[in-house]
Each structure stands twice: as C-alpha cells, then as structure tokens.
Design brief:
This protein is an all-alpha fold. It is 68% helix and 0% strand. The chain has a single domain, classed as Hydantoin permease (Orthogonal Bundle). It has helices spanning 42-48, 54-65, 71-93, 95-99, 103-111, 117-147, 151-168, 170-198, 209-225, 244-269, 280-285, 290-320, 332-349, 354-386, 389-396, 404-417, 430-434, 442-461. Helix 1 (42-48) runs parallel beside helix 10, helix 2 (54-65) packs across helix 3 (71-93) and helix 3 (71-93) packs parallel to helix 9. The two termini are 39 Å apart.
Length: 462
C-alpha cells in the first residue's frame, strides 16, 4: 500500500482499488480498508453466471438418465438440494467484509493454522483441477460441435481464456461475470422454452425411488455447496459497512436461481430422445432449431469460461491460504497458471468418458464438503458469541493457534462417510451395496455427524 509520510494527513492511495485491467497482487492476506470497494449487488451475477452452463444442465440429465427419476421427482430433488447449498453460500459470504480474507483462510478458526492445510489443499485440487477439468471438457465439446474443430485443440483454446481471466484477478472476474450474465440468461431461457415445448414431462426415468432421489439431491447439493469453500473469495473486497442482508441475499439468490432453473431444463431435455452416439452437448442441442442450437453452444462455451474463471482463481487462492513458508514465493497469478495447466491435463484425460467422470466427481464433492461445512457453520455460530472481530482476526495469522476438535470432527465425518459412498465406478460402500434403496446419504450423515461432534468436542475442550 502507498501510505502518507509520517506526520501528515494525506489520504491513502489504493494500489489496486477498483481498477479492472490490472493484475491483482493480493493473495490470502487481509484486504486493507483503502482497497475495499464494490457493493453486494455484484455477488448476484458473480454467482449466477458461472452456473448458467452445461455442467449445471448435466445435473438434471443424470438425475433422469442415470438415477432413474421422473421429471417431477428430479425437479424436487434439484430444487431442495440447490436451496440448501445456496443458503449457506449467502451466510458464509458475510465473513468477506467482516475479515477481508478468502474462505479457506477463515477456515483457520475451525481447524487451526496447521490443521487448515488439509481442507485448503483439498479445495485447491477440487477447484483448480477438478472443476476446471469438468467445465473445460463441456466447453471443448461445445466448440467441437459448433465448429467441427477436434476436441483437443478446442480444449486448448478454451483453457487459455479461462486462465487469462483468473490470472488478471478479482476485479476482472467480477466484471466478466457481469457482462456474461445477460447473454447467458437470455440464451438459456430461450433454450428452456424450446426444450419444455418438446419434453415429455410425465416421462423420464423409472424405478429411481428414494435411492435415486437421494442421489439426485446429493448431486444438486454438492454442486451448489461446492461453491461454499469460495464464498468470501469474492466478497472480501466489500467495505466493512456493506449491507449484511444484501450480502447474504444476492449470492444466495444468484446461485439458487441459476442452478435450479438450468438443471431443471436439463432434466426436461433428458426426456427427449437423442442419438446414442451423440456427445453430451450435441444431445442437449439436438432438438433445437439450428440458429438456437448454435447460440446455446456459444453460451455453453461462455458459461464454462465464467465458471472456470472462478475455479482457477479460487483454486490458486486456496493454495496461498496454506500459509506455508517456501524457499520461493509463488504469487496468486503464478498459481493460477499452474492450476490451469494441471486442470487442462485432467480435462484431456477425461475427454473420452466425460459423463461418467462428471457423475462420480459431483458426488465426491459432496463427500468432503458436507463434513467441512458442518464444522465451519458450528464454529461460525459459536465464534460470534465468544469473541470480538478484532480478537478473532488476530488469530487468523497466529501460526501457533490450534483447534484439534475441528480437524478431528472433519476427519471422523469423512471416515464414517466411506461406507455410505454410492454410485462410484470403483467403490460402493457397504450400506448402499446391501441396501441400494437408501441411495447416497453420505452428505447428510457427514454434515450432521461432523457438526454435532465438533459442537461436543469444542465444548469439552474449552
């Protein structure tokens, strides 16, 4: 920061401020008041644009085609799962203006300084590699369908744009999402109207039952709550005086409406027959008139870029939140490039079987996010009752601070979840293997167990 000379009262001049075309230099350190800017309204499109894309469509598709639900059953599971994930997104966003740090740094309250390395590292891999790969594949298939360009060069073109936006940083990300939002919303709403006109809403899967419902719920919740570990990454530049109600409302509404509407359109599209050899994107656009199909393919590409701008940015931020002292300092912008390259490699490897890979990935997200979220929400509730913001903020940088109950509750929640795993290609847990009608109850059990266990252990440890 540029500060006034000693003994003067000249104002502080922000170095980054609200400049859009400037590479952000901040990593995981607190954002000074002089750098704070913006309003909660920007969180509406920042959390809406990344979900108006094909990965969201595919939640509805797999609910009908893979999980065996009818359209209305799938819609109920999608709406319920998305609503819960969006609600916690809004609540967590409040800590951005409050502490001025990324979500993974705030995790130090829950897990201690060193204990927080585990969830931060996991989120860095999930965001910067896993999600980056998933969305890049859908964009590559869309570009391949639109232009006839082969999948690999299509993939490379897409990832360059995604990495560039994340490299520039926070303000450019918000601005990109703002202008992408109306384009994506109009195109997908047009596609939705056309899809519902041709859909068989009384059809869809058969025999999904409660097991299929829980699988679809877990996938929808995992998709929405999968953004929770990024929540304050995009609200931390807001002024401390930002309206609290709006800081909760706008990210929750943006996330819920975009995911619910687009995923339900996907469920409707799954009731329309498509050629067996069609790529996922071609199957979704096959029933649309040519002009609208081309527009949707463009929107799929734009939506994937919107999502991956956040994924690669937050993936890098999560790595900086590890707080490790390395011989060579790796800046946020450098880590964006490194994460993007790793995510590109993962996307390349999954081009041949994107559908199955995405289904498994969605459920794996829910497996770790649920226990993490249970601990974080309990800690957030108790924290607000036991210490001032100034006292808590000092603890974020204290390398000696430990909180073993949080880490223990997280690990136990994940461990107990293993026998409940379902619908994975290489492993199915004991419970769904013997009682398949229960579907996948992993997120619910993991959340409740870790939250309850942490509350008890925290009280006992003082």
């Amino acid at each position: 920061m540029t500060t006034a000379p000693a003994g003067t009262t000249a104002p502080i001049t922000p170095e980054y401020g609200d400049r859009v075309i400037a590479v952000e230099t901040a990593g995981s350190e607190p954002i000074p008041d002089a750098e704070r800017h913006g309003s909660p309204l920007q969180l509406l499109w920042t959390w809406a644009s990344p979900n108006i894309e094909f990965a969201t469509v595919f939640i509805g598709v797999i609910s009908v085609l893979f999980f065996g639900l009818g359209f209305w059953q799938a819609t109920a599971a999608i709406v319920l799962g998305t609503a819960l994930g969006a609600l916690t997104q809004g609540v967590l966003s409040l800590d951005g203006p409050r502490f001025g740090v990324p979500q993974m740094v705030i995790g130090r309250f829950s897990f201690g300084y060193l204990g927080n390395i585990l969830p931060s590292g996991v989120n860095g891999l999930v965001a910067g590699v896993g999600w980056f790969a998933v969305n890049s594949v859908s964009a590559a298939f869309a570009l391949n369908t639109l232009t006839g360009l082969r999948p690999l060069p299509s993939l490379l073109l897409v990832v360059v744009a995604e990495i560039l936006i994340g490299f520039i940083g926070h303000n450019f990300v918000h601005t990109f999402e703002k202008y992408a939002f109306p384009v994506l919303a109009v195109i997908f709403l047009l596609a939705g109207v056309w899809t519902f006109k041709d859909a068989h809403l009384d059809g869809g899967g058969a025999g999904g039952g409660i097991g299929g419902f829980l699988l679809a719920f877990s996938a929808a919740w995992g998709y929405a709550a999968g953004w929770n570990p990024y929540a304050t990454d995009y609200s931390r530049y807001l002024p401390r005086t930002a309206n609290k109600f709006r800081t909760v409302l706008y990210p929750a509404v943006g996330l819920f409406v975009s995911v619910a509407v687009v995923a339900v359109i996907g469920a409707a599209s799954a009731t329309i027959a498509a050629p067996e050899d069609a790529t996922p994107t071609a199957a979704f656009t096959g029933h649309l008139p040519g002009w609208l199909g081309d527009l949707v393919l463009i929107a799929i590409i734009l939506g994937a870029v919107s999502a991956n701008a956040l994924n690669v940015y937050s993936g890098a931020i999560s790595i900086t939140a590890l707080g490790l002292e390395l011989p060579v300092r790796l800046s946020r912008s450098v880590l964006v490039v490194v994460s993007g390259i790793a995510g590109t490699a993962a996307a390349w490897a999954s081009l041949s079987d994107a559908g199955a890979a995405y289904e498994a990935f969605l459920l794996v997200i829910a497996y770790w996010v649920a226990p993490w979220l249970g601990v974080v929400l309990v800690e957030r509730w108790t924290r607000s009752r036991t210490a001032t913001d100034e006292e808590r903020a000092r603890r974020l940088g204290d390398r000696s601070y430990t909180n073993w109950p949080g880490l223990a509750a997280l690990l136990i929640g994940v461990a107990v979840s293993v026998p409940l795993f379902s619908n994975q290609e290489k492993y199915v847990g004991w419970v769904p293997e013997h009682y398949p009608s229960f579907g996948d109850s992993t997120p619910l059990v993991g959340f409740v167990l870790s939250a309850g266990l942490y509350a008890v252990l925290r009280r006992r440890s003082g």
